[in-house]
């Protein structure tokens, strides 16, 4: 049976459509169990019923016609109870319902099992037989196992709609992906394809090495020019901080990154296209193994640059300039920031990608430009979508193909309301983030790339609450030198002076290793990461500390933050190293002052060591993303359990409230730098708990500021008092949404179904 099970699952996994998968299921199971009938019913959430989707044994004409409500008939009973039903004489059961179109009156024995994925009933799997008999324990166990296996196979197809019908020009289809940039838009699909195939480059020995090097340099120069033009086309739609993303592309093409490594391979005996493809693939393979979303998305940037350079090497000049629809929705396997800049700004309406997430560069740009984006649409048949009318819902992460008139009217109305809200938020960008009763909340931003947020942001901010230093380390083939790090940090500190910049020390580990410093672990989130790594390699930490101190000379706006702290011994060791670095620089004649030192509160153990930590450091910064993940034992990047990751869980709120109260008692500053701070609901809860510094991704500033300005501190404190008295997530969520309505702030939240 195990071999049969394996073969069936393998066949279903290879099916080209949902209809094909269901056909394989019913035919293979009927044969394996030697029954007269096998049928599969799938749940339609919108109609709240189970629909006969495929059968072998019942009349084929009944497919798609027979529907049962939960609790109706034997199938509905299985779905409602969420447990198997095994009966010898089905027609005599009180819940039996006869459908003449199925011809099932001929069958007596009935065995039905629910198909369940993450506590959600997806459907019911049924076998029937003419003779009166109760199916054996082994048969029941096989069907239960089969349903459990099929749940994982079917869930993605069900969440994206019936794949067999996606290309039907008369059918509306609703698909779900990752909400990458908020907003809603209506437009027409324009499908983009990669400019060159890095995986299909043959290996050759160059006839003239120097000529190959020249070809490479010319191709890189051409791509540099293309990227400059793309940045110029977007200049009026994005701020200096997003413009800097294109500078990052230029850095990646520099001699210290891709260019030098490719040239080295050419001189070792590889022609330029193959050397380029190998270098790009090496970087991409490494980045795609990283568990950190922000860093993993850099693989898309490297791949796009590689394709562009390869296209110039291959001198493909036959392509005609594309003609874009008036409301272009760019659809592709993996969309890059440079591709975004190639479209006339007045025509780009939305983005849809098979790969990518909210941390990709194109998602950052889309948010800055106010362009809705949905990513992770892995089953979208993009080759058949050119010219297809569609709605992109960046709040819910939805794509609606060929929307019907009533849905179009509904979305047009919501888009008008969204435009009015955007105008209101833009008018408040320069206003202080003060509550209605005059309390000031400091809003800071999180940054990642060396020049990502340099310049003067349009919105009023109070500094950088988190600068991730690990990204510059990834752009090298070795640990960057003290001089190189000093230059990078100086740019960041000068760009925001005199505002404070909180620089987190190198946060690598099993989930974020470096290509030249690989770390392989079975459980990276509980492994060698953050401060644990750098304390084991003080030579790396000392260079970084010295570079930070040098970069801050004369600016006095550096703050140093230690990640993944678990014990006071770790902090004591860093303090000694910091004092040593200060003394070494002073001995060299560099005038440096001791910066403020803080620890990230992300390991639950530190919640019970706050007093001891407060004696050693100057501030706390709550890393809410990891703290929530560790408190709930949930990997939010794991689709099986990501639904359990919720900052409104009572245990999470109580932990955050405890940190805030203890910090006040200890008279030490405490800020929050995770995603919770960038959510209007989260910001108000944190404000009510007593946090006065919130750091977030820049696109979240406007909504958080608007929420703070419309609520009194007392109102936020009352909300916290009320939610802390609750014991369930459902109750907490309902109370919070109700209070947001009372404050007339529901428009700041993503639309609810």
TrEMBL record:
Residues 17-164 form the GAF domain. Gene3D superfamilies: 3.30.450.40, Phosphoenolpyruvate-binding domains, Phosphohistidine domain, PtsI, HPr-binding domain. It comes from Kushneria pakistanensis. InterPro entries: GAF, GAF-like_dom_sf, PEP-util_enz_mobile_dom, PEP-utilizing_PTS_enzyme, PEP_util_C, PEP_util_CS, Phosphohistidine_dom_sf, PTS_EI-like. This is phosphoenolpyruvate--protein phosphotransferase. Its cofactor is Mg(2+). Signal peptide: none annotated. It catalyses: L-histidyl-[protein] + phosphoenolpyruvate = N(pros)-phospho-L-histidyl-[protein] + pyruvate. Keywords: Cytoplasm, Kinase, Magnesium, Metal-binding, Phosphotransferase system, Sugar transport, Transferase, Transport. Belongs to the PEP-utilizing enzyme family. PANTHER family: PHOSPHOENOLPYRUVATE-DEPENDENT PHOSPHOTRANSFERASE SYSTEM (PTHR46244:SF1), PHOSPHOENOLPYRUVATE-PROTEIN PHOSPHOTRANSFERASE (PTHR46244). SMART domains: GAF (SM00065). It is found in: Cytoplasm. Its EC number is 2.7.3.9.
